[in-house]
Amino acid sequence: MSYGPGRSPLVTGVLVGVGVWLVGALVGILVAVAFRVPEGFSTVGFGATIYVAGVALAFYAAAAQTFPLVWLVPTGVGFLAAIAGGAIVVAQTSRVDRGWPAVKAGASIVLGVFLCSMVVLAVYLVPSTPFSNVPVPARYVSLLFGSLLFPALFGALGGAIQHSLAGEQ
Question: What residue ranges are annotated as transmembrane (predicted)?
Fold first, then answer.
């Protein structure tokens, strides 16, 4: 497969979405290395978990639960990577000349992000890890917002930004 103008935004979105997820997880791993990893977690497992569950952690922070706020950094970086990823998909699939197709192409990164998040949720949020003490509704919030809505929203935003920047030239 080549990265020519005829490339499918769906395939490109999945590939870029996996890359977006890996960026967020890598930042999560760096945060886990820099700070103490809770007992029972591997560094890689904890880094990926705080990235996937970052949205639920943000809701807990708003409810005045205590945990290090630095655990939210991977989610924020993931959102920025989603904006960049959405723009990349649009640029690589030649969708910059049309507004709505550019937004949809940018949002297609959600497929790759969701795929990676499902793997991590299946592996690390099963009852055998300390993080499984998180109430089940918070896991669903994390999955819904962190792996579906926010990546789609920020990817679409990246697609729209790419479209508007291409229109100015």
Answer: 12-37, 44-63, 69-91, 103-126, 138-161
